[in-house]
Amino acid sequence: MSNVESGVDVRAVVLVEGLSDQVALKALAARRGRNLEAAGVSVVPIGGATNIGHFLDVFGPRGLDVALAGLCDAGEERAFQRALERVGLGSNLTRADMESLGFYVCVADLEDELIRALGVAVVEQIIDAQRELGSFRTMQKQPAQRGRTIEQQLHRFMGTRSARKIRYASLLVDALDLTKVPRPLDRVLAQV
Hints:
This protein has 10 helices and 4 strands, in the order E-H-E-H-E-H-H-E-H-H-H-H-H-H.
């Protein structure tokens, strides 16, 4: 199969829910000195978990039959399980079964994994470096945010403006200690 963007032959596809997941995985691979494109690995955002079935049909055993891996949020785990089962990759799949197939679940999602891995102070430093700490502090004062933990507030902040999650995905990954990469991100890249 040829990668539409580059013309490189694709030997493996990592299916991710959205663009921020794609950006994070590519940034992590680059930090580890891996050129996914040159290795024939394509990270494909599927536009939300409900689209997983279509992409498994295209790339899976009944389609192009390339090596597959994937990453999803905990809230979307069941959609991924059902789709994997529907294309014949198992039945009554547990999370461990999904992992054996190369599909990993973020708890609760990518941003949560990265915030926990980095810690509040580092995430706030990154926000400050982007000149958005004032905006974050303003958001924290909103009545809906007052009862939340700072980790929950940081998570909410990442999703409050268009493309912020995408921009911060690479910034957060760039700040990671490579010995403390969140397990789902680490394992899905190891799969391919």
